[in-house]
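User: Hey, my collaborator sent me this sequence without any context and asked if I could get a structure. I don't really work with proteins. Can you help?
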Amino acid sequence: MNPKTTISISEARKRIFEIAQDVQKPDNYYTLTDKGHPKAVLMSAEQFDSWQETLEVMREFPDLDKDVKEVDEAVKTGEYKNWTTLEELLAKEGFVVAQNSAKKYGIPAKDQAKREKRVK
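Assistant: No problem. I've predicted the 3D structure and written it out in structure-token form, which is a compact way to encode the shape of the chain:
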């Protein structure tokens, strides 16, 4: 706990507007205490949402570090030569892909032709 941002609930009540502004700065939060014991943490809604998203990703992909290392190794050894594009994945799942997306995103015509063959 940071002594500068650890305050009693009573003190926080007096300074709530100041604290609400202060927690908008990156990585700022306050620990609120009751009789010297931590009871709550006050942080920005944006930072809270970020924590929630991080926890969700950790639940969905518990071995993410291991998975990333495996993919990195596969790329280094050349195991992954035939990448699947987003358009291919969407088409495989039954979504219709706009034909002019290549022009919009600057995909060279020869690469777009290859993609269209693979999608069909």
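In plain terms: Helices lie at 9-14, 16-22, 45-60, 64-77, 86-92, 101-104, 109-119. You can pass these tokens on to your collaborator as they are.
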